[in-house]
Amino acid sequence: MPWRRLALAFWLLAASLDAEQVRITVLATTDLHGNLYPVDYFTGRPAPRGLAKLSTLIREQRAANPNHLLLDCGDTIQGTPLEYVYQTWVHAGHFPLNLSFAGRLPGDPMMQAMNQLGYDAMALGNHEFNFGLKNLERARAEARFPWLSANTRGGEKPFPRYLLRTVAGIKVAVIGVTTPAVPTWEKAGNLGGYRFLPPRQAVEETLAELRAERPALVVIAAHAGRGGAVDKSGENPMDEVARSVPGIDAIVLGHTHQSLPQAFVNGVLLAQPKNWGMSLARLDFVLESLAGGWKVVEKSSRLIPVADATPADPEILALAKPYHDLTERYLSTEVARSAAELDAKLGRVEDTALVDAVHQVQLHYAQADVSFTALFNPRVRVPRGPVTVRQIAALYLYENELYAIEGDGQMVKEALENAARYFLSCRDAACAGPLINSAVFGFNYAMAQGVESEIDLTRPEGDRVRNLRWRGRPLDPRRKLRIAINNYRAGGSAGYSMFRDARVVWRSPEDIRQLIIQYYSQRGSLPAQPDGNWRIVPETARRTLAQQALADAERAAAF
Fold first, then answer.
1. Of 79, 206, 464, 553, which shows the fewest CB atoms inside 10 Å?
2. CA atoms in the 13 A half-sphere facing the CB of 341
3. Which of 244, 83, 224 is nearest to 152 (CA)?
4. Cis before residue 434, ω within 30 degrees of 0?
5. Domain limits for position 388
6. In the chain, how many domains are there?
7. Model pLDDT for residues 350-400, shown as the tens digit of each residue
8. What angle do CA 355, 359, 365 make, to 5 degrees?
């Protein structure tokens, strides 16, 4: 009967209006990489980043909704000189370069700040392993919140797979995930007995374990990205997890240093805040009470950026000050001199003295025939005169180790072809731009020293490296060579699979940045000119790329 259907409709409407609703907010950070103070340590200038400024945003968002959780997605205790000084020297109780520190520091600076802010959980990141298990476990023990990783198994102290919290009377589960590619980058001694399962399998197992708890909201805090066609290594599998594993409401992403305000994959909400504490992710969930419990009826996310005008939290600044002051003393230490003003803004377009400076160090310590390195920071400037640790740190941002591997000419050719994917092929004789391949990160564009070559952008991808020569003669693909590369490149990621199974014949006792400091402290000066061992052809392509690099540098300076 029509009147019965109408009555039912009115009853359902009334029931929905009477249904209780609760809004739960998840606040998230990721890839903080030791950014505590709002400063760029590589330039010495203030910067809109870091946990001290994020703290202000976190407090504002908490005030807006008391029903919340605060999560971090990992790569937290490594990345800035501040953490490097603590992890390498303060933690060990001795200092380099005649530095000393008479006071006592209470522990890892990031853990101290995150404790003060009341984080609920943190996903384990790959860089947490960089300083070894002793440092990792010490920082983990200092944290008043769990480090989660459902897919990291084994080890003497297993990581909890999930956190179960009751927020506003509603059960919320947070599952941690870590990129499974960790063993391809990290040396075995730093991993101990830990092994890494595929995230899909680990999440499925964890959800089955959680079934008895019946959480109304399931969020994954992932130190891994979305992946896609270019992710053949499985490093960033979270789109696959969202598509294939039922029962997930949202995933907060990390690891790839990208920004993602909001996306949906198979109904799963995805968000990723910017790295280095440059933005805070806010995810909102509206849950409605039903006869059988609670159900998510609405969800959304956005990013809240840190700005120059965002005030830094004075409590976090006070906590961080002794670490910051010691870091500044270290960075201001003179280690060498430069006979010329050196600039890296064209360092991915043409050979430069600053990249050659890294090659010299790698060739020397690895006793290698060929060296591979990337330009990690094209904003580096070295004035004529004194060169400090700050400028060396700006040139080599990461705590990578140096390896010497057994290779051959074919390996060198394949690596250079893979690197050349950073460029697009010329579409016409003028080689008009753009010629940068946005699908390839600049830090994965590796240049070689010890050989001579040209990158011909009129040629198709995979066949661009021309006139490859070693010691004045064409490089024989069968020629045995000792090759210097960092430990991450040796893992074969970013398309460098030719290095993955090569025999490692030597490992540096210190990270590459320290080797650079040591090398030039002894020799006194940086190279003033590049040797010009590689170039891009035709000249029209090089000019187009130079114009693009200069424009990018201007935009970066304006930012």
1. 553
2. 3
3. 224
4. yes
5. 334-558
6. 2
7. 999 999 999 999 999 999 999 999 999 999 999 999 999 999 989 998 889
8. 150
